[in-house]
């Protein structure tokens, strides 16, 4: 541990700095009162282009991504690069969808995707289903941010869980106090650090390793020597479809996660969102470069640290690379970038999960007359509970379990697509159809994931997201992203049950939204204001 | 404030929106870029081409943003 003393000091100093920023954030763009969910949970719904860029960027491109994507490239090669097409196709894909979601939420004061579903389909049950799916999918994601911090601490020789608990306690305290303003302000520090570290890494490390040509040669040599047929610096016949469906399916899922939507709803108008759809790919470029760190680690001969369970922890590859390549003080900066990079999304995710509980469970089922101040109070408390839960996940369970859960999370959050995303465009689906489709999609998704073994880790089930089509009786070695298959089942069942419900004249919910709501912008009247003017 | 009340707006329709299609489709067509050659600065085509698609995405979304943003008296 003593040889890491410089790294630890730099890491510690930067950590203290952002904690201070987190607490000060409560005074930033200070509202008249913090006792309202729009203020605590959405930062006043008034963020401009720059803040939104940092906030959403800091939210989507998490510390775990920065550690896990290069780890995947290190292990499997080209397949791990799916993160690049994934984060390219997503922005043009959601460009028009998100502005509709922003508008209808602006008019009706929605805070969560489940709020929208409730109003659109007139079904608190469907909203509850969406809210629970969101919470379940988000929890392991928060836990994974801890895995990111732990990978860094391990490399610095810090073991034990106490540092993680302290870090999360501080995070919980300033999120409680400052709400969404804390991660928004910290994101400026986090992203600046990450950009500096990665740009330095992609210039400095290849120069030390003899250029990109020799880095790719070393990677090719490694994959040629490995017995695994799925790896390589290019895709092969069997994993191309997996690459395409994984990129596409992940892109479909990303903005269904409640925390992604939180950043979008916090922006002040539609143009802020549109502008960010063309500015956020700057992070995709960064992510592409980060992915290549996996090849650099191969070329530098990095060996992952062997964890407590006796298995090599691939997530330590990137921190190890930094440790070996950078001078101590800069490695400290790099670790801080990853560590702080975990705090921003963890804060936003816990806020989003807390909002879901407050709006769609507490207010809906426990206390219908809760005032906005009550909502803010409950949300603040729940954000603490969520973080304690995430820490317990890491303390009590094998981290591998969180990784498996996150894999499942991606598949199950996709099952909210028909209600949340298609719901923005069409009211054709019957609420019974959507609930049935969701249930079928969840069951199918679980079954598919259960069937996937992982020969590398010796697991028989939940070994990955690449579903071999031969299991369905096809004579092929091709694999497909399980989430897409489950979504297909979901849509099919939703459509069939919708037709049956219509034919049987089952009562459908009332749509509380109007067509014009989907195009409203900043300054247009909101529902509450309309109600007030009608009362006079 | 917007000039027209929301009820009278035409919605989000615009021919410029078609520009959103290429950056969704092209990065998913692996047969276009799953090659080693030609290399650029030592990068196999697979890697530099996909990084170049990011630029394609930025250009397409920027054009759509510029052509469809609402004219606002406040700005």
UniProtKB/TrEMBL annotation, chain A:
GO molecular function: transmembrane transporter activity
Coiled-coil spans in chain: none
Transmembrane segments: 6-26, 47-73, 79-99, 126-144, 156-176, 188-207, 241-259, 280-302, 329-357, 378-397, 403-425, 432-450, 478-500
Entry's localization field: Membrane
GO cellular component: plasma membrane
One Pfam family, short name: SSF
Keyword Heme: no
InterPro entries linked to this entry: Na/Glc_symporter_sf, Na/solute_symporter, Sodium:Solute_Symporter
Topology relative to the membrane: Multi-pass membrane protein
Keywords: Membrane, Transmembrane, Transmembrane helix, Transport
Record family assignment: Belongs to the sodium:solute symporter (SSF) (TC 2.A.21) family.
UniProt protein name: Sodium:solute symporter
Automatic annotation (TrEMBL), chain B:
Higher taxonomy: Bacteria, Bacillati, Actinomycetota, Actinomycetes, Streptosporangiales
Keyword tags: Membrane, Transmembrane, Transmembrane helix
Transmembrane region(s): 16-33, 45-65
Protein name: DUF3311 domain-containing protein
Statement: the UniProt record of this protein carries the keyword Membrane: yes
InterPro entries registered for this protein in UniProt: DUF3311
